[in-house]
Amino acid sequence: MAEDVEVRRRPGGRSARVVAAVHEAVDALLAEAGPGGFTVADVARRAGVNPTSVYRRWGSLEAVILDVEAARLAETAPMPDTGSLRGDLLAYARQAAAEIARPGRLAFLQALIGAADMTAEQRQSFLVQRAMQFQGMLDRSRERGEPLMDFTVIVDCILAPIYLRHLLGLGVSDADLELFVARAFTAK
Amino acid sequence: MAEDVEVRRRPGGRSARVVAAVHEAVDALLAEAGPGGFTVADVARRAGVNPTSVYRRWGSLEAVILDVEAARLAETAPMPDTGSLRGDLLAYARQAAAEIARPGRLAFLQALIGAADMTAEQRQSFLVQRAMQFQGMLDRSRERGEPLMDFTVIVDCILAPIYLRHLLGLGVSDADLELFVARAFTAK
């Protein structure tokens, strides 16, 4: 099993090339047609792969989009390391608030909402990579002897209001972001 | 201007019939095709009205969906009146958590995300009706001499984590809902 994963991930392998081609195709289609503007068949055609390869690996269009968006987030939104948990969280919150205001950056939320039949496990898979990066931030904080914080508190108190306020057209000022971070520290 | 609004809203008037027919058509199409599965032309055909009437009144498909969903929320999710703000908020949170788990009930979020070119004012219009109902709850609370709470605190601390946790496949237990309400009371 571990061997299989290693083989699949080997750079330059056939599967790695399929993944890279599909990611590139989805990126381009998201930019051109927007989320909801293309199908798995479009992705496959553009990537030069068989649609069944896409379904076999990802299962649905929404799952492909989530995968691409998770990879993009990991690349374009590195975890800050400012020397304190409060500083890290505030820097992350500022980055997230700026990012979602850019066009097309809510594709992952749209995929999550559009995929009515996606299981809780499939939804969580989007979070796993991100949660692991947050864990690094939280581990550094613990090593410095700062108060412990759970990842779900970050989701509830910081990420959730940034996203919902944006969707509802309520602005988020820098003072609001400081407030969200402060709430995360007082949250039970 | 006021007269025009009164005429437009007169029950049985031509405009009232258009609104009712369009709402009914959108309701049916949301159930059959899901959000993203139909166009303004489909709505107009089904409602037996001219597409230009739909564009003139609402401006976009997303705006029509938001209007229909706001009306449905007002009908199906009445504001609780339990005798305390804490009780009202917990009852509302339970109602919201149960509601979004039902199929098709995230149409309004999808409309908000899909409408990239919707202005902040248009996004807020969805909230206005709901905010006014919350204001009744908050007014009763003030009259009882309870601590003051702002509507945005309810959005940030209670509604946002319920929605985002659902989308991310993280469960929301009843204990979580109590926690969200408690956080709203301690939030600055």
From TrEMBL, chains A, B:
<dbReference type="InterPro" id="IPR036271">
    <property type="entry name" value="Tet_transcr_reg_TetR-rel_C_sf"/>
</dbReference>
<dbReference type="InterPro" id="IPR050109">
    <property type="entry name" value="HTH-type_TetR-like_transc_reg"/>
</dbReference>
<protein>
    <submittedName>
        <fullName>TetR/AcrR family transcriptional regulator</fullName>
    </submittedName>
</protein>
<dbReference type="Pfam" id="PF00440">
    <property type="entry name" value="TetR_N"/>
</dbReference>
<dbReference type="Pfam" id="PF16859">
    <property type="entry name" value="TetR_C_11"/>
</dbReference>
<feature type="domain" description="HTH tetR-type">
    <location>
        <begin position="16"/>
        <end position="76"/>
    </location>
</feature>
<feature type="DNA-binding region" description="H-T-H motif">
    <location>
        <begin position="39"/>
        <end position="58"/>
    </location>
</feature>
<keyword id="KW-0805">Transcription regulation</keyword>
<dbReference type="InterPro" id="IPR009057">
    <property type="entry name" value="Homeodomain-like_sf"/>
</dbReference>
<keyword id="KW-0238">DNA-binding</keyword>
<dbReference type="InterPro" id="IPR001647">
    <property type="entry name" value="HTH_TetR"/>
</dbReference>
<dbReference type="InterPro" id="IPR011075">
    <property type="entry name" value="TetR_C"/>
</dbReference>
<keyword id="KW-0804">Transcription</keyword>
